[in-house]
Design a protein that fits this description.
Blueprint: H1 3-9, E1 13-17, H2 23-32, E2 36-40, H3 44-51, H4 62-70, E3 74-77, E4 88-91, H5 106-116, E5 123-127, H6 135-145, E6 155-159, E7 178-182, H7 185-198, E8 203-205, H8 209-239, H9 244-251, H10 275-283, H11 291-317, E9 326-330, H12 345-355, E10 359-363, E11 369-372, E12 375-378, H13 384-388, E13 392-395, H14 405-411, E14 415-417, E15 429-431
Parallel strand pairs: 1-2, 1-4, 2-3, 4-5, 5-6, 7-8, 9-10, 9-13, 13-14, 14-15
Antiparallel strand pairs: 6-7, 11-12
Helix pairs in contact: 1-7, 5-6, 8-10, 8-11, 11-12
Length: about 425
């Protein structure tokens, strides 16, 4: 039976490298569709949890994961030799930036080398990790071709960008359209067949991996630039004593030519703060400088400092200095109603506050404790006694559940709301 026939009949064994926010939901969907799935990860703790049917990703249904494991449709391992048993291999590993905002492709190259050692005829490899245009053909393909096998004939290689929005109640992996670009037409054909068998929202094939890679970069660069714009508008609106949230809501009534974006203490997650800079890096190879993207990044990077400056002004108006004040952060995740701290601007706010000698406390219904820069933090409870100890509170995540803002506002001198979750309903709330 050919690989294409195996994919169509769901006889193919599917491997997913990286059991994180992208990999585990994807593995679950593939197993749910009827494929036998093997998840690969270097973290033994994750592997053990999956094999016990225990979920650790918010967008995965606990019962569904457990049922798939019990039915032996899904299992996990740290043994990469099992890649030999896989007909399809998806790479879903992190693609971070280093401290100089240069791409770190080590997770991708490590995965490609693991596959190379076990690559055989009749396998499909799909890179899903967000990266700069050219990575699939310039980095992954040469590694795999060291085996002497020919792409498009002996094995197949494609890029299909992940589109995961943690905590989104409407769009999950299952009902989000998939973009696919193969190195050859046969590569595209095999990858399209796989995802058409798995997803409900359809597949959009493009002409090449580069086009698929650029698609993902465009999506997130669009968001970065527009968020930066509204962050700049926020600063101007504050000086002019205009409520930016009211302005955004008013502009959103326009049924064409406008899409609302919202300010906050910065940007977080694995996509918006990182992905556009992969393109900035690659563009320099062509002697191009993406100044708009770089400036947008600088604006967003500066928002935690702006938030602390605003807090300092609020305290000054009360004849208080920031040094020695007890400040409560409401939320430390990068967006509301999830437990994801990746690149969270709240963490930068904490760093800045502590450098200015403020005493920082936090409450987050989704994060009972965490470690950042080697320091351990544990949430306090929102009791009247604890709140009366505070000199002020900052809303730094957009949680709409798990926090009684009315109770908090009643017992602290002021609430500086950077996410508009209170809608300014309480007298002592100050909006960003």
């Amino acid at each position: 039976m050919s690989l294409y026939e195996k994919i169509l009949s769901k006889e193919a064994v599917v491997g997913v490298i990286g059991m994180g926010y992208v990999g585990l939901p994807l593995a679950v969907e593939k197993a749910r569709a009827g494929y036998k799935v093997i998840g690969f990860d270097i973290q033994q703790k994750r592997v053990d949890m999956i094999n016990r049917g225990e979920n650790y990703i918010g967008d995965v249904d606990n019962n569904e994961l457990r049922e798939l494991v019990q039915a032996r449709r899904l299992r996990a391992t740290t043994d990469f030799d099992e890649l030999r048993n896989c007909d399809v291999i998806s790479i879903c590993v992190p693609t971070p930036l280093d401290k100089f905002k240069q791409p770190d492709l080590s997770y991708i190259t490590n995965s490609a080398n693991e596959i190379k050692r076990r690559l055989r005829k009749g396998q499909l490899v799909v890179l899903e990790s967000t990266t700069y245009p050219g990575t699939t053909e310039e980095v992954v393909l040469p590694i795999l071709q060291e085996t002497g096998l020919k792409v498009g004939q002996d094995f197949y290689l494609a890029f299909s960008p992940e589109r995961v929005d943690p905590g989104n109640p409407r769009y999950k992996t299952r009902n989000t359209p998939k973009v696919v670009g193969g190195v050859t037409p046969e590569c595209t054909k095999h990858a399209v067949a796989l995802y058409e068998n798995v997803l409900e929202a359809g597949v959009f094939p493009v002409s090449s991996p580069r086009a698929a890679e650029m698609t993902k970069i465009l999506e997130n660069t669009f968001r970065l630039v527009n968020i930066a714009l509204v962050q700049e508008m926020t600063k101007v609106a504050e000086k002019m004593r205009i409520n930016i949230w009211e302005v955004i809501d008013a502009a959103a009534t326009k049924p064409f030519g406008y899409m609302p974006f919202y300010p906050g203490p910065g940007i977080g997650g694995h996509c918006i703060p990182i992905d556009p800079f992969y393109l900035v890096y690659k563009a320099k190879e062509y002697d191009l400088h993406m100044m708009l993207v770089e400036v947008a990044g600088e604006i967003s990077d500066g928002m935690p400092y702006y938030v602390v400056d605003r807090l300092t002004d609020i305290l000054n108006e009360r004849k208080q200095c920031l040094n020695g004040r007890n400040i409560l952060l409401l939320g430390v995740t990068y967006k509301g109603n999830i437990d994801d701290l990746r690149e969270s601007p709240a963490l930068k706010v904490i760093e800045i506050l502590e450098k200015k000698k403020a005493n920082v406390f936090y409450y987050d219904p989704f994060v009972p404790e965490f470690t950042h820069n080697g320091k351990y933090y544990k949430r306090i409870e929102l009791t009247e006694e604890n709140l009366r100890m505070m000199d002020g509170a900052i809303v730094t995540s957009g949680h709409t559940i798990g926090i009684d803002y009315e109770f908090v506002a009643k017992h602290v001198p002021f609430v500086f709301d950077t996410k508009n979750v209170t809608k300014g309903k309480y007298e002592n709330v100050i909006l960003l």
